[in-house]
Amino acid sequence: MKKPASAVIFILILGVLAFFLMPRILRVHNLQVRSDRLEEELKKIQRENRLLENELRLLRDDPVYLELVARRKLNKVKEGEIVYKVEKDREVEQPGSSMGSKPEGRWFKSNPRYQMQDKKATAVNAAAAFLF
C-alpha cells in the first residue's frame, strides 16, 4: 500500500510544480525568441549604419562620387552641358488600333527604313538606361 500512495503523492507534486513553473518556462522561451529577433535587427541596423558611414566618407572625400550623386539625385549639370531627357511613351494603345504600333508583315521586315528606326530607338533607350 505504501508504494501506490507514494506514487500518487509524487505525481501530485510533479503536477503542482509543472503548474507553477510552466508559465515561467514559457516566458523565458518568449523572451529568448524576442532577444534573437532584436539581435538580428541590431545586426541589420549596424550593416546599414556602416553603409551610410561609407557613403558619407565618399561624399566628403571623393569629389568624383560627389559629382555623380549630384548629377543622379539632384539633376545637376555642369555649365555648358546640354541635357537630353528621354521620356517613355505615355500613349495607351487601344485594342484593334494601330496607333503607336509597328507595321506588320514581310514589308516591314524587309523595309530598311523601319529597321534603322528600330535600331536607333534601341540604341537611344540603351544609352538612356545607362545614364539614368
Poorly predicted runs? 105-109, 113-120
What is the domain total for the residues? 2
| Largest beta-sheet characterization | none
Oligomer: single chain
Radius of gyration: 35 Å
Coarse shape: rod-shaped
Report the end-to-end length measured between terminal Cα atoms: 89 Å
Write the H/E string, N to C. Answer: HHHH
Structural class estimated from helices and strands: mainly alpha
The chain-level mean pLDDT equals 76
DSSP summary, beta strand count: 0
Helix percentage range: over 70%
Number of helices: 4
Query: What amount of the residues lies in strands?
Result: under 5%
Care to describe what's here?
The protein has 132 residues and is mainly alpha-helical. The chain folds into two domains: 10-80; 104-132. Helix content is 73%, strand content 0%. It has four helices and no strands. It has helices at residues 2-61, 63-73, 106-110, 112-131. The chain is rod-shaped and about 105 Å long. It starts with a helix and ends with a helix.
Secondary structure blueprint with pairings:
Elements: H1 2-61, H2 63-73, H3 106-110, H4 112-131
Helix pairs in contact: 1-2
In short:
The chain has 132 residues and is mostly helical. The protein has 2 domains: 10-80; 104-132.
Q: Key terms for this structure?
A:
132 residues, mainly alpha, 4 helices
